[in-house]
Each structure stands twice: as structure tokens, then as C-alpha cells.
């Protein structure tokens, strides 16, 4: 494993996902500012999710096809600039537009960042991708706390809602430059082969579909809880920082679970880790909705830990299936899956508006991991060419 290159890609992932999660902990505030219904808020979340995630698929293909080099620093730069200025937008349309622009930066970073991480991981791709994934999850979790804190700091200084994000812009620009400078001499393996959809991707769709379905179903539950749980906390009267901590522990649990799950998959097999982790999480997710605040934090950590334990394992499986299009393969697991999952937010919002209970609407999504576990039974238990560990 090339630890320096893996560390650079992981740091970039932490930055990119940290900036992209400054706004989501404040969805309750956004709903109040623009007087949105839950369905309208879900539509805003979906627009942001679609660009952030489906954009990865487009950029992943262009990176493989056109041999784009060193766009990871540019992606972080775009994400930092637009996220940090979102609070200065005068109306809903400009707010959504600037939010979508920040998502383009995130979409640009992820395919090549993940390909760099996979290249740096050598033969331990699942474990290396779990380190890369942990960086993104830790950054995302940090954003869940940093966003409300910057918002409150800006308001205390007489600024408008979310205008305090501007204070971290210089930091983001500096680190984007450092990432650009470090990664410009590194390219993922396989760049000598010009990627072609008909030759390298389309013949693999039958193998890709089960793992994609698993990732989409799991991501739908993650997206629903990450988008609406803090809104429920806001409705119950908890402050912005307390809302942010709910998202922090949910995402942080996923980061730790992804690391441990990738490690255990080497011994227990990828299929076992995927199925078992998906089946453990639904009861934890369900009871977190009715639990007192402190217990809810613990349940969210455990549910994130179990629900996402096999996430990096499944991303590595997509890279195994499409070895000549590493950026495209990464964008399938990290972009397409999450983009398709984003359709759940307006649906949860509509059910909530119809029933009058956001908790009930959110609880319905715990069925998705169970369905995903059933689909995962057809997944291979090990990477192609990987030998089963010998008994000692």
C-alpha cells in the first residue's frame, strides 16, 4: 500500500465531504427561512443529491475516457467556494443554485479521488477503500457539528443565517491547493487503456446489478435518516448543535463500521459481512426514533456502524468488476447508488405531510436494509482470484 498517496486521497475526501455537509444539519433552519413544507424540503435535498451523486458518474466516465488528470484539488476548490457563500443568497432559487454548484465540486472530486485510493491500496483494495471512506465519513461527521457552530457564530456576530461558513473558506482554499500540488504527479493505474462503455462497462452490467441494488437500498435508508432525523430533533425543540450531533454520531458510526467491516471481510467473506450488517441495523434505526436524546445518539452510532459496515467492501466489488474504468466503477458505488437513493427524500416528505408524522414516514425506510440483505445473498464472497484463508 502506498500510504502517502492514500493519505492524500483520504484527506481530500474528508475536506470534500466536510464542506458538503455544512448545510444538511441546518435543514430545519432552511425549512423555516424559506417557509417550506417537508415535501418541498425533500425536493431541495433531492436536487442537491442528484447533482452531487449523478455528477460523479458523468465525471468518472470523462476522467476514464478523456484521461483527465489531477482534478481532485479543483473539486475541493469548487466545493469550498460555493458552500461557504451559500448563506449570502437572497432567495430560495439562488440558494438552491449555489448549493447545486457546490455539489458539482464534490462530484468532480470523488471518482478520481476514489481511483487514487484504490491504486494506492494495492491488493488490499477493500481495506484501502475503507480508509478512504473513513476520511469522507469523518469529514462529513465533522461538518455536521461545524455547520451549526459556524451558523451560530455568524448570527452572534450580526451576520445572516449560514453566512458564518465564510470563516472556513481560506482554510478550504489552502488545503485544495496542497491537495492539487501533491496529487498532480500521481495517476491511477490503467490509464494507458482508453475506457469504452461498450467494451468495458456494458458487458459487466449483469454482474454489477446485484451489488448496485444493495448499495442503493442501503443508501436510501442512510439518506432518509441523515436528511430528516435532525429535522425531527428540531421539531422537538432541540437546538441546532444538538441536531448536528445526531447526524455526527450516525455518520461517525458508519466510518468506524466501514473500517472494521472491510478488515473482517478478509476473514469472514464479503457476502457474509454485507448480509449480516444489513440485518442488524433495522431494529436500531427503528428504536432511535422514539428514544430519549442521549439514547438516540447511542442507537444512531450503532445503526450507522452496522448499516454501513460493508459499504467499502461493495465499492471494491464494483472496482473488481470494472478494472479498466476505475473512476467510473468508483462513481457507480459512490455516485450512482447515492443519486438513485436521493429519490427517497421527497417521498418521505410527502408521506410525512400526508400522515402528519415525520417519525412514522422515516420508520418505513428501515425495511430497505432487509430487502438489500436478501439481494446480497447472490453476491460473491471473495474477490476474483482471492484465495480462501487457510485454517491455522
Structure report:
The protein is mainly α and 392 residues long. It has one domain (3-184, 195-376): MFS general substrate transporter like domains (Growth Hormone, Chain: A, Up-down Bundle), CATH 1.20.1250. 76% of the residues lie in helices and 0% in strands. The radius of gyration is 20 Å and the shape is globular.
Apparent shape: globular
CATH homologous superfamily designation: MFS general substrate transporter like domains
What is the count of DSSP helices, taking H or I runs of 4+ residues? 17
CATH architecture title? Up-down Bundle
In this structure, how is the largest beta sheet organized?
A: none
Give the quaternary arrangement of the chains. Answer: single chain
- Helicity, in percent? over 70%
CATH fold descriptor: Growth Hormone, Chain: A
- Order of secondary-structure elements: HHHHHHHHHHHHHHHHH
Query: How many domains, in number, for the residues?
Result: 1
State the distance separating the first and last CA atoms: 25 Å
Amino acid at each position: 500500500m502506498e500510504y502517502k498517496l492514500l493519505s492524500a486521497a483520504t484527506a481530500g475526501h474528508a475536506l470534500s465531504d466536510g464542506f458538503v455537509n455544512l448545510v444538511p444539519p441546518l435543514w430545519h433552519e432552511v425549512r423555516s427561512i424559506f417557509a417550506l413544507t417537508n415535501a418541498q424540503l425533500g425536493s431541495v435535498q433531492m436536487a442537491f443529491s442528484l447533482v452531487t451523486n449523478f455528477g460523479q458518474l458523468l465525471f468518472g466516465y470523462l476522467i476514464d475516457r478523456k484521461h483527465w488528470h489531477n482534478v481532485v484539488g479543483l473539486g475541493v476548490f469548487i466545493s469550498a467556494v460555493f458552500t461557504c457563500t451559500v448563506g449570502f443568497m437572497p432567495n430560495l432559487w439562488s440558494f438552491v443554485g449555489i448549493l447545486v454548484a457546490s455539489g458539482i465540486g464534490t462530484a468532480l472530486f470523488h471518482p478520481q479521488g476514489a481511483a487514487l485510493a484504490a491504486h494506492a491500496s494495492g491488493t488490499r483494495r477493500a481495506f484501502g477503500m475503507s480508509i478512504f471512506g473513513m476520511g469522507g465519513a469523518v469529514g462529513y461527521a465533522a461538518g455536521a457539528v461545524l455547520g451549526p457552530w459556524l451558523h451560530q457564530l455568524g448570527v452572534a456576530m450580526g451576520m445572516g443565517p449560514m453566512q458564518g461558513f465564510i470563516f472556513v473558506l481560506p482554510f478550504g482554499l489552502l488545503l485544495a491547493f496542497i491537495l492539487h500540488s501533491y496529487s498532480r504527479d500521481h495517476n491511477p493505474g490503467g490509464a494507458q487503456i482508453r475506457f469504452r462503455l461498450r467494451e468495458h462497462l456494458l458487458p459487466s452490467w449483469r454482474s454489477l446489478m446485484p451489488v448496485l441494488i444493495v448499495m442503493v437500498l442501503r443508501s436510501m435508508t442512510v439518506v432518509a435518516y441523515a436528511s430528516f432525523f435532525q429535522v425531527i430533533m428540531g421539531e422537538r425543540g432541540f437546538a441546532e448543535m444538538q441536531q448536528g450531533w445526531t447526524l455526527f454520531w450516525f455518520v461517525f458510526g458508519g466510518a468506524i463500521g466501514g473500517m472494521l467491516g472491510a478488515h473482517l471481510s478478509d476473514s469472514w467473506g464479503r457476502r457474509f459481512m454485507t448480509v449480516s450488517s444489513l440485518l442488524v441495523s433495522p431494529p436500531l434505526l427503528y428504536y432511535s426514533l422514539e428514544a430519549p436524546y442521549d439514547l438516540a445518539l447511542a442507537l444512531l452510532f450503532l445503526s450507522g456502524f452496522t448499516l454501513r459496515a460493508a459499504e467499502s467492501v461493495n465499492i471494491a466489488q464494483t472496482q473488481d468488476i470494472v478494472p479498466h474504468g476505475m473512476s467510473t466503477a468508483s462513481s457507480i458505488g459512490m455516485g450512482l447508488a447515492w443519486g438513485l437513493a436521493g429519490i427517497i427524500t421527497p417521498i418521505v416528505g410527502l408521506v410525512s405531510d400526508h400522515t402528519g408524522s415525520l417519525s412514522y414516514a422515516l420508520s418505513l425506510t428501515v425495511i430497505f436494509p432487509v430487502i438489500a440483505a436478501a439481494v446480497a445473498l447472490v453476491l460473491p464472497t471473495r474477490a476474483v482470484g482471492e484465495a480462501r484463508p487457510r485454517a491455522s
